[in-house]
Amino acid sequence: GVLRRTYEQTGKQAVVLIDEYDKPLLQAVLDENLLDEYRKILKAFYGVLKSADRYLRFVFLTGVTKFAQMGIFSNLNQLSDISFDLDYNTLCGMTLPEIETTFVPELEAMALKQKLSHEALLEKMTRLYDGYRFTDDEEFTPMYNPFSVLNALMKRAFGSYWFGSGTPTFLVNMLKKTNFDLREMDGIQVGALSLNADMVDTNNLVPLLYQSGYLTIKEYDERFQIYTLGFPNEEVLSLIHISEPTRPE
Hints:
Blueprint: H1 2-10, E1 14-18, H2 23-27, H3 32-51, E2 56-61, H4 96-102, H5 104-114, H6 118-129, H7 146-155, H8 161-164, H9 169-178, E3 189-191, H10 192-195, H11 206-211, E4 216-221, E5 226-230, H12 234-242
Parallel strand pairs: 1-2
Antiparallel strand pairs: 3-5, 4-5
Helix pairs in contact: 5-7
């Protein structure tokens, strides 16, 4: 009704932005009954968008992982997954040129506080927060973690800010349930189908670790469609070492 009336009053189609569409599903991922209830609710919700197609300019959804196989998007058959597209590989994060041109005063203040040259400051920031790759295309642009960069510039100090923002509860619970050792993941090779998995699988947490930022693409073998994954930077590496698995005695 809102979409229809908006169109009737303005003559313009609406843009619908949905952030963290998968949040309720991830919170219930280990509870099959609750997960199925959420699935039905979300399927009905997204079905409305399909029926309101003539009132929509476009719909943009973001989330940590994909739940296409659960049928919540069965009515939205025109969705396009841009997660690995080169055209959008700089959408989620910051590039070095963006940091250098946007935060000149902040970089100068931080360099002064840290007693580092401009070059040395950026070199350390790169080691700590850079390294994310969101496409298999060789022309990719390395991305910096925006949360960590912004906090470092604001506080004029380096730190593990991403960890402080809180590891997703669903991921912590799944790691505990599977006794998964993150330290063994650096350099792991997986197929394209595995990395693009459409559903969270407790038997294969690699796609989830990639999608949540613990792993990133290091290399891609186009012939065999094999991805080599690894830890993106020193900040994540430090988190891996302090997040040792709890093993039963």
